[in-house]
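User: Please predict the structure of the protein below. I'd like the answer in structure-token form so I can feed it into my own downstream comparison script.

Assistant: Understood. Taking the following sequence of 319 residues as input:
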Amino acid sequence: MSVSSMAQISLLISLLTLTIPNLFISGVIASATFTMVNKCEYTVWPGILSNAGVAPLPTTGFVLREGESKAVDAPSSWGGRFWGRTICSEDSDGKFSCVTGDCGSGKIECAGANAAPPATLAEFTLDGDGGMDFFDVSLVDGYNLPMLVVPQGGTGVNCTTTGCEVDLNDECPSELKVTSTTDGASVACKSACGAFGQDQYCCSGAYSTPDTCKPSSYSELFKNACPNAYSYAYDDKTSTFTCAGADYHITFCPSPNTSKKSSEGQVPLASKSPIADSTMVYEGAAALEASGASPPSTCWSQAIAYVVAAMIAATWWWF
């Protein structure tokens, strides 16, 4: 074998050593794009909060007029929540505030501040156990507008749509209802914990475990209307979903019948999202292996293709 052939093979091995691990890693650790879409018949101001210890995204709040959308990129291992603020305005001093979902920053950007309950929340943890993204739509802190989360291009046995598509404001029990100070219209629905502050509703004190904290008649109202959404603190099995390699669309007022105008006087229909099976559990690497599901990303198959091609090339150079 010539010195030139040896040098070529040595170079090939070096390239494979650098490239193949990156390909396999990218199949598990990947960024995601969140696209927020406003299908409401009114303006929504999305808010974004990163989890403690996680760097904020490039924006933490903005305006979405009817029909508008905006995409926000998140790095791998990001975690946090999205929500929609409604009935927002600036006062004479330029202070920004909202009737529902207000984060108290005084500006359109929430800048690290959380949503004031009640608010519908979309919660995410990217690249969690087994490289899976974990996500849910939560009504634990109450409800202010319909929301749907739809994974785009992801894989996994529990990678599916979730959310609350119906308008619960008009059907909200009077003791939970939040009304507008201007016209008395129902604009949000508190959780029982938020309304009464009692341990059995807040899953606190003597009710701080899954065995002692059970669904209440109030949380069951939320659950019956939105079967895939979190209705109380320990509603994990039917409300947490997982994907690998996905982007996500977050839609406010996803169905035409969920806008304030078109829902007046109507009883909300049941959620059109697939009803979660009561046996749903967190999905990680072991679950994927047991289910025989496809690998988290097409990057795995791409990596194998690169390896095969490299082996063929090495054989050709060798001879």
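That's the full token string. The longest strand covers residues 79-90.
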